[in-house]
Specification:
Jelly Rolls; mainly beta; 7-stranded antiparallel β-sheet; 232 residues; 57% strand
């Protein structure tokens, strides 16, 4: 079963400095049909004005992933990390027993665009952690996150994997799935089909269950970039 989550149906909040679209219930946006998917709790598509950002605030018992699409994030946290996160890099923060952090647009003239993603951990507590890495823009599927950080991936406290999908030269790619697991696709750019009747555009998502094989077909001349979540 494949269920499309249209970008146009997402929750929306505009605070002036922040324009945010919510794939799942978040803040003042509540939809009982979209409370998350398996352990995936939040996908926020955020646009931040120059020099603006999220003041210091806290999290506990959540795995928080950021992917910058445009611009640079200036990050500070209570464990002593002071970092910049440029476009294309992934940041994974494990809140554990508690962490405070701020995230600002590092530029005073360029808009910041990034995805903020929350994943519920499979165990509570533990020391907070911070990881950051660039994985490039290779054609096909690239492993980004695994439970134990295998082969240079980011390590997460959950039975889940994240893959980056790039289709620039390829027009079709087939993924062998496990019908017992849950999959979620978030399309960042381009136009993609998952089945004869499922077409995705930028910002769309798709919940996938009870399927043994997924075929991605690129529908436009421009490249496609997506995130594929493999969840228990």
């Amino acid at each position: 079963m494949i269920q499309l989550r249209s970008a146009n149906d997402r929750g929306h909040a505009n605070f002036g400095w922040l324009n945010s679209y919510h794939s799942f219930s978040f803040g003042s946006y509540f939809d009982p049909q979209h409370m998350g998917f398996s352990h995936l709790r939040v996908i926020n598509d955020d646009t931040v004005r120059p020099s603006a950002g999220f003041e210091t605030h806290g999290h506990k018992d959540m795995e928080i992933l950021s992917l910058v699409l445009q611009g640079t994030i200036a990050h500070k946290d209570s464990t002593g990390n002071v970092e910049t996160l440029p476009a294309g890099e992934y940041q994974l923060m494990s809140a554990g027993t508690g962490i405070y952090h701020s995230e600002f647009n590092a530029s005073d003239n360029e808009t910041l665009k990034f995805l903020q993603i929350w994943i519920q951990p499979n165990r509570l507590g533990g020391d907070p952690g911070y990881q950051q890495k660039a994985f490039g823009e290779a054609e096909g599927l690239t492993n980004i996150i695994t439970p134990n950080g295998q082969d240079g991936t980011l390590a997460i406290k959950q039975d889940m994997r994240l893959h980056q999908l790039i289709m620039a030269e390829q027009t079709q790619l087939t993924w062998q799935a496990d019908a017992k697991r849950h999959y979620y696709i978030h399309l960042i750019e381009g136009e993609l089909s998952l089945a004869t009747d499922i077409t995705m555009k930028s910002g769309d998502g798709a919940k996938i269950q009870d399927i043994k094989q997924i075929t991605f077909t690129k529908l436009s001349q421009s490249r496609c970039k997506a995130l594929l979540f493999d969840l228990a």
